[in-house]
Prior knowledge:
The structure holds 2 protein chains of 2 kinds.
Chain A: H1 2-11, H2 14-46, H3 60-87, H4 90-122, H5 130-151, H6 155-169, H7 172-182, H8 202-234, H9 239-247
Chain B: H1 2-6, H2 11-57
Amino acid sequence: MNAFIRWIHRTGSPEYFYQLSGKLVPWFAAGFLLLLAWGLYGGLFTAPADYQQGDSYRIIFIHVPSAWMSLFIYIAMTATGIIGLVWRIKVAEIVAMASAPIGAAFTAVTLVTGSLWGKPMWGAYWVWDARLTSELILLFIYLGIIGLYQAVEDRRRAARAASLLAVVGLVNIPIIHFSVEWWNTLHQGQTVKLMGESAIHPSMLTPLLVMAVATKFFYAMNVLQRARTMLLEQESRKNWVRRIVEAK
Amino acid sequence: MSEFFHMGGYGFYVWTSYGFFAAVLVWTALVPVVRRRSVIQRLQDRAAREKRANDTNT
């Protein structure tokens, strides 16, 4: 635990974080592009059409990874938000706040692609099903966090208030996850399971998992880029930022 | 090739989905790049302004 706290404090030094993340961004970008190419090729060319849904099911390769990201980023945002709240670490607060717009973007992609998949399969773009409704609420929570962060003048107080809102909104995450089990939903149940066998053929599962990893690389790249810029703004009076600005 | 774009009759739904996904990712990727440039520009302008103010005062 002590080693963990020491690691947090070291990484939590804004200058150290800025330099380290600057080195990591190109690697995440390269990983994202490679995996994206692999995932799209597998999903659009290699994988066969579904025996029930035909080619419409190919939306799965962006819909499901985006849906996983909408939850993954929320958890990452809340975790870094809590670290910021407990230890008052500026970098953690910034990473939490940089995550919110990315999470909102993936939630929007989930809702729109799901809607475009629902129309040919269910006959409707939208139904007030538990899975769809809880995911829509997730979008509103993201927007609320972004709005609250923008509304408060002091950046650090804004981040703490918005992180607290993220903690409250965490209750929605298990509701989204278990909605297909707790309620009788039109949305299908889980296809890919961590425990037990997945109900999907490897030729379809592989591109799905590749896209899931690709979107994680995208998040890692994007959140670091956003956090770096936010750090420059918030630390603009510090010497390390002056040096960077002068060198440009 | 046209069969590929046709997607067994689901072309509109599949390609609108992939198009939206691409548009959102490109937008999300560009926002911090543009923002970074404007922040650095602003900080440079401010440094130059403060330097001028200092020079005239002394």
